């Protein structure tokens, strides 16, 4: 990107100003933590302690599924406080990670002549305890809850370590125990591991567990130390695999003890771990985590939570450091928190928070290859996050984004393909395309000139794109694309047996075709930005238009003609009712990845997926019959309930009216979607937060922007705040957006007639851009002032269209010019 230095407003410091409000206090970590059971919204948000892009995500785990992030904001009993979690994901309803939980209880494990099993309950079912109502407290960097027994748990953390504080009631002195659980991860998938405990209470653990969304297992390690010397310590283990909840307990106060369970290829029901008996009323545990070894987990703990000169761990300093990292992230988007609507303020900062929890920085924790490049995990999945999370990072977190992009490229460097859904350090399942491609293409078009300085070798980035666009992975179930089919047919045929011998699921043909097309557009975009050959650029531009090959003009639904459909290798179409897999599908269908998916669409309907070609929406408008029919069709999609607010393929549709010259209708629709589907309540996310995908989407809606993936273009909406400032550290710019004529009465689902909702004019540093539909990245982060003038004349807005600069870019109409 080419910046215009004369418009720079230089910053005094490299980060956003420190005179900001206490933004962390505005974050509500419980949004999206309602149970997904019985049709609940199941945001699966993680409300525990974590720093931005943390590996350690410490939180409590409930006993009832679904519990993808461990926590559910209900009265379920708690079985532990564990060290690693996912954020907002779907996948295994039991959840991902949740390894090596600690659990406090009051009891007696031994008397002078043996073990009193009755009150010594380390097993997961027997120990489960209820929280006292209303005691869950969370803020960035801190989480606390209190059991009905009166035991309080608090935690705070760093990238790979942290502290957990247990405060027992005074009355239980002498009977305070902690369980250090080796075997019970959230998925109950223990497949072997070891634990040792020394007389000082130093515990080292390692175990192998199953991924939450993928075919593999992984190993994780931890290290625990306590701030007081135990009265007694020891081990417990299942008496037998057939009696996993009956325990042999061995306690000691002098010699080291250990447990060892050899690796098993099937999950073991065994329960085992350590028991530590304290006399103290308050016990602080320090933990470290690692994917390499328990020794490294211990050194991570020592490094990140050091012993201070006073000989203790500094709880307040760890909390303050985490909070200040969050303050830095949040302050990159600044608004007047006193003046703007309080609900919008809470939604905005809570969303910015969740959009920076993952991908997780596992640098130094890569078990598979040595590399000088960063290593990130929980890319869970690129399919979820390429639409909104990465474009948001591109605006305000360029340095973090560059590291994440570099980790994607390093995945290619070491495996031959851009990772798609790396989770628990292993490749997870591919959902549609290889959607790291639009992420890399977008980085190229936005940061080509700064890439080397930001640590991203651009020749490698481009080669990663080309290899992923051309080669078929032997296991395209977990990485890459079925390029054999894509290149041979220019679409993904149904009923075609791939002769390559490569292994994948031959389903989701139509969805994959649309996503492969966008992936090829990303190669074209990177080719231009990185000055690659005209032949490459033309080739990938051409291939990116092949989504039209899934278009069956003869299919009709609700009076609209032409829908994406599966297609046989002989070229004829296989009919799927376009309503199939929509929220109002009258027949139960599997709409997932498996071979039982017979619709051709992945977590979406033809009604919805037929709107997906961000790089050439003009083609869709043409195929669907022109502006008026297109607008009617979008309206019908919402009116009939085909909109799936809670899942990613729907993300682009509320703003798609722009492409028919009707940004006024997009503005109305976005207001409706935000207030119908999002709120500050525990059920305030319409579906899984999906690694912050929903959070980043809501952020864009509130700021009046929507990103066109793999490009520098943003669609302009009508902001929900009267002004905001974006800080970009790579360009050292601050860009202030002001809504001239901002009308608080539009902050509702259905703005009253005449309220000033519609964008009338946009100026960048005083100059009219000529468009009320789009704004370029260069202007969004270019420094200076963007003024968005709004008015309430709906007829004028409809007549104005996009303004003199015309419709948003589409390849078909010559957009995204070289
Ligand atoms: C921020 O606000 C929270 C909650 O009101 C408060 O506990 C915290 O001390 C404040 N932090 C700073 C740095 O002012
Ligand atoms: C938990 O909440 C549910 C639903 O609100 C209620 O039916 C149940 O009685 C509660 N259980 C306990 C133990 O409080
Ligand atoms: C120790 O506990 C066991 C098991 O409950 C019990 O049978 C035994 O009598 C106890 N011994 C003493 C000395 O309290
Ligand atoms: C006990 O464990 C500690 C810490 O792991 C270790 O330093 C010590 O050497 C061990 N002692 C014995 C006797 O194994
Ligand atoms: C788990 O890992 C082991 C050792 O790498 C391997 O033999 C086994 O097949 C794996 N199991 C699964 C389910 O991935
Ligand atoms: C346990 O704590 C109590 C109260 O602080 C104290 O009186 C007692 O001596 C302690 N016992 C041991 C074995 O340290
Ligand atoms: C990731 O961790 C590495 C190693 O500590 C650090 O240099 C880098 O800044 C971190 N990046 C992010 C985005 O957290
Ligand atoms: C792509 O290239 C093929 C072969 O040259 C050509 O037939 C086709 O029309 C091109 N498609 C587009 C959209 O340009
Ligand atoms: C659509 O229907 C017409 C009339 O039956 C037929 O000629 C044409 O081949 C069909 N097109 C496709 C793509 O199936
Ligand atoms: C195309 O293939 C499908 C599936 O095998 C078959 O049902 C259909 O009859 C074929 N059509 C033609 C024109 O060959
Ligand atoms: C659709 O609307 C846009 C914007 O108003 C206009 O430029 C374009 O010509 C229209 N297309 C057709 C086919 O009318
Ligand atoms: C903020 O907007 C919400 C949603 O329209 C509304 O319910 C609330 O009253 C507004 N708050 C204030 C302080 O105006």
UniProtKB/TrEMBL annotation:
Residues 1-20 form the signal peptide. Keywords: Hydrolase, Signal. Residues 26-290 form the Glycosyl hydrolase family 92 N-terminal domain. GO terms for cellular component: cytosol; nucleus. Residues 296-790 form the Glycosyl hydrolase family domain. GO terms for biological process: carbohydrate metabolic process; glycoprotein catabolic process. GO terms for molecular function: carbohydrate binding; peptide-N4-(N-acetyl-beta-glucosaminyl)asparagine amidase activity. PANTHER family: FAMILY PROTEIN, PUTATIVE (AFU_ORTHOLOGUE AFUA_1G10790)-RELATED (PTHR12143:SF25), PEPTIDE N-GLYCANASE PNGASE -RELATED (PTHR12143). This is Glycoside hydrolase family 92 protein. It comes from Collybiopsis luxurians FD-317 M1.
